[in-house]
Amino acid sequence: MKTRAIRVRIWLVYALWIIACLLLSLPSLSRAADAAAAAAAKAAICTSCHGLGGNSTTGEYPSLAGQTSRYLYLQLRDFKAGRRSDPRMSPMAENLTPDDMHVLADYFAAQKPIATDFKADPIKVEAGRKKSEEILCTMCHLGGFSGQNEIPRVAGQQYPYIVKQLQDFRDKKRTNDAGNMTSVSKNLTDADIENLANYIANLQ
Ligand code: HEC
Ligand code: HEC
Fold it and tell me: Which residues bind heme c 1 (predicted)?
């Protein structure tokens, strides 16, 4: 009888301990929910151009969904500082604090990328794949152009946007890349750029 009473008491202490743990974790759970809601609210204005969840549906706006957080943060910082400039995007970064930039970067990095409706030309895809092997693009961007840290994911990005960025790097209109992209793109012809963009926009 005695051992049974002890066992009941042990179970009681154990149950109380679990209840206490649950009660203690409630505020942090609701804090996490508040933070997620605040991030989504901050990102709402961005989605008017970059699409719902950062999945762009227009060629002039890049998708942000599934991009690396580090790269997104660095681009926002560069737009604000004027190292990268675009008449539609620069004003959007003007009033962001570093904290806002981290929150927005983490938010869009965590969104799931959705395939665009781009119809690739198979001949250009093959030519682009060869060119990308020749120039060793994936040495930095990783196989499948999935990106890492400060090097962007380009797989499945909007085709017209990829073309514009490669032209801008080649023509030194975009120079916030510490020389990485301006040097690899300097000898690309317009046809090379079309081929590369067909190949990369077609990757998932
Ligand atoms: C009025 C339209 C518009 C709005 C609103 C907008 N952007 Fe942009 N954004 C652009 C355009 C256009 C570009 C591409 C500029 C270029 O061609 O270089 C861009 C580029 C970017 C890039 C660089 C992406 C890459 O792959 O290099 C990031 C990051 C970004 N925007 C984040 C944001 C965030 C965060 C917000 C909300 C605070 C926002 N944008 C709101 C138009 C917009
Ligand atoms: C030495 C490393 C390196 C190599 C090689 C390289 N890239 Fe990049 N690429 C980068 C970095 C770093 C950035 C981001 C630059 C910045 O911060 O603005 C970038 C940016 C880009 C962008 C812009 C993405 C966006 O969202 O705006 C495209 C497109 C791109 N690279 C395509 C290519 C292609 C195609 C090749 C091969 C022809 C290539 N890269 C080779 C490092 C590299």
Answer: 46, 49-50, 89
Residue of 50, 69, 72, 141 best suited for mutating to test ligand 2, as the one with most atoms within 8 Å of CB: 141
Give per-residue pLDDT as tens, 127-179: 999 999 999 999 999 989 999 999 999 999 999 999 999 999 999 999 999 99
Residue 129: how many other CB atoms lie within 10 Å: 17
**Full-model pTM:** 0.90
Residues with CB under 6 A from ligand 2: 62, 74, 132, 135-137, 139-141, 150-152, 154, 162, 165-166, 176-177, 180-181, 184, 196
The vertex-185 CA angle with 183 and 191, nearest 5°, equals 165
Q: Which atom of ligand 1 is nearest to the CA of 105?
A: 35
First to last CA, the chain: 66
Residue closest to 70 by CA, chosen among 16, 14, 108:
108
Question: Of all atoms in ligand 2, which is nearest to the CA of residue 197?
Answer: 35
d(CA 57, CA 115): 10
**Whole-angstrom Cα distance, residue 52 to residue 61?**
12
